[in-house]
Amino acid sequence: MANHVGDRAVVLGASMAGLMAARVLAESYAEVVVVDRDDLSEVSGTPRKSVRQGGHAHALLARGLQVLEDLYPGLTLELEALGMPIGDLGNNIRWYFNGRQIRQVDTGLVIVSLVRPLLEGQVRVRTAALSGVTMMDRTDILGLATTPDRGRVTGVTVRRQSDGVDELLPADLVVDTTGRGSRTAAWLEELGYQRAPEEKVKIGLTYTTQHYRLSENVLGDDLASIPVATPGHPRGAVFSRACGRYQLSLTGILGDQPPTDPEGFLRYARSLPVPDIYEWVRDAEPIDEPAAIRYPASVRRHYEKLTAFPDGLLVMGDGATSFNPVYAQGMTVAALEALELRDHLRRGSAPPFRRFFADIARVIDGPWEIAATSDLSHPGVAGKRTPKIKFINGYLARLHAAASNDPHLSNAFLRVAGLIDAPPTLMKPATLLRVLRAGKPPAQPVPPRTIDSASSSTA
Ligand SMILES: Cc1cc2nc3c(=O)[nH]c(=O)nc-3n(C[C@H](O)[C@H](O)[C@H](O)COP(=O)(O)OP(=O)(O)OC[C@H]3O[C@@H](n4cnc5c(N)ncnc54)[C@H](O)[C@@H]3O)c2cc1C
User: Fold this and answer.
1) Which CA distances in Å does 367 have to 101, 213, 294?
2) CB count in 10 Å sphere of residue 55
3) Strands (DSSP E) found in 178-275
4) 104-141 burial string, b = 16+ CB within 10 Å, else e?
């Protein structure tokens, strides 16, 4: 062990945030126990019961892959060996905004076309192989154990599904990575603490996804075609290839739901601003039925604003902030939070809650602002549109239009979307001038929903 901080850490939840937390905790705790209710014995391309989002489009942002490669050297090539092709973020993805493709450009940033359960499975294999790490699967997390004064969390009570027996797992540190449904807020209340203030952006998003076999490789060297939802075209899609099959995730917002019946699904695909995707899948061989998942709102829990919190407990991943998934930020932010945890542990002790939550809040701020600002470009999304938000959204619309002819702008935008560069870099004089010189974008087209409202239902 690189640097001893404690005897045992318990991680609640063995999805991406939990696995990366366990990876860094293993450098500082003699034992790391990762608890999850699902059966984790198999690595497969099929989504787990409790991580249903794994069956839908999942991208790992360029920054996220860099961090994962730092935590698990060689991972990128292992993923490729499992059938997930690698490419360049700008050169091998076709990005569309308002029906116009931005110029493909060599960004030098590697991306992997993922099958999410396989990514998680490989990260799990690598984590479980670390000295001191134990995976405790098919085990339900029941609650926290504390000192009599409730000032410190001392462990977790769990129930094994195999025999229904309850067990107390003592721990020097408990890390909650149980996702959006995290019960830390409720546990805090039970223990006499305040809940963290919550911020929500109600996007009313639905993903509907189907997988196909195609007789020819319609994407060529490219890995995916992504018409991004914009106010003019609020219906989006991710069409990608990996592991010998094609995946199409259709997205709708504010209650516009891509249907789950095959005909309705195809009609919705036809309403996208980019005709290719419909043409590719209309006669393709479906592997499964379309399946939907709803995502009502992005949720940020501001733990950094609390003045009292029990020692020995941290929250990370979606449990702290769940981002609108269309920006593909969740796993990358969880990876950056794991780096923050590692930095703290390397200083020789478990992080005090105030400093840890303040540090991860700084990690969350940028991606949250990107996602919330873009969501507010859609007129139906509730929220205050400050002059800054209006300016940014107007500027981005111009930048996207100009990027259809200007690879410099594609590169600058993709580096920010990939969480490599901070958003203010888009305002650098060289970039700003190029956007201004390109002039105003053409008028916004009519949203397809008004053309093809028959193909959707409203929540
Ligand atoms: C439709 C959709 C698409 C997405 N696309 C992307 C994307 O493209 N890119 C990206 O980076 N992110 C994406 N995300 C978000 C991403 O999936 C999460 O950020 C990521 O999984 C990290 O979440 P997590 O580990 O914090 O929690 P989760 O993935 O939700 O995992 C929580 C874990 O805790 C376990 N658990 C929960 N409660 C209990 C309990 N009581 N007892 C035992 N175990 C428990 C569950 O079994 C699960 O394993 C998407 C999300 C959705 C909904």
Assistant:
1) 23, 35, 21
2) 22
3) 198-213, 224-228, 236-242, 245-252, 256-257
4) bbebebbbbbbbbbbbbbbbbebbeeeebbebbbebeb
Q: Under a CB-based contact definition with an 8 Å cutoff, are residues 303 and 193 in contact? A: no
Residue type, 222: D
Q: Is the pTM of this model over 0.90?
A: yes
Would you write out the chain's pLDDT as a tens digit for each of its 459 residues?
778 999 999 999 999 999 999 999 999 999 999 999 999 999 999 999 999 999 999 999 999 999 999 999 999 999 999 999 999 999 999 999 999 999 999 999 999 999 999 999 999 999 999 999 999 999 999 999 999 999 999 999 999 999 999 999 999 999 999 999 999 999 999 999 999 999 999 999 999 999 999 999 999 999 999 999 999 999 999 999 999 999 999 999 999 999 999 999 999 999 999 999 999 999 999 999 999 999 999 999 999 999 999 999 999 999 999 999 999 999 999 999 999 999 999 999 999 999 999 999 999 999 999 999 999 999 999 999 999 999 999 999 999 999 999 999 999 999 999 999 999 999 999 999 999 999 877 765 544 443 333 333 332
Give the Å distance between the CA of 261 and the centre of ligand 1. Answer: 26
Task: Kindly list the distances between the CA atom of residue 444 and the CA atoms of 300, 390, 459, in Å, as whole numbers in the listed order.
Answer: 31, 16, 26
Q: Based on the number of CB atoms within 10 Å of its own CB, is 152 exposed (0-12), middle (13-18) or buried (19 or more)?
A: middle
Does residue 249's CB lie within 6 angstroms of at least one atom of ligand 1? no
State which of 12, 178, 324 you would mutate to test the pocket of ligand 1, scoring each by most atoms of that ligand within 8 A of its C-beta: 178
Eight-class DSSP state of 196: P
Task: Using alpha carbons, list the distances in angstroms from residue 349 to 6, 174, 361.
Answer: 8, 14, 20
Are 353 and 313 spatial neighbours (Cβ–Cβ below 8 Å)?
yes
Separation CA 296–CA 171 (nearest Å): 34
Cα separations (Å) of 362 from 21, 76, 191, 300, 376? 18, 27, 27, 13, 21
Per-residue DSSP letter, 389: H
- 300: its two tokens: 């940020």
- Ligand 1 contact via 135 beta carbon (within 6 Å): no
Look up residue 388 and give its two tokens: 């800054």
Q: Is 95 in the pocket of ligand 1 (CB under 6 A)?
A: no
Protein residue closest via CA to atom 12 of ligand 1: 330
Pocket perturbation via mutation, ligand 1, pick of 58, 180, 299 by most ligand atoms within 8 A of CB = 58
- Please provide the size of the chain in residues: 459
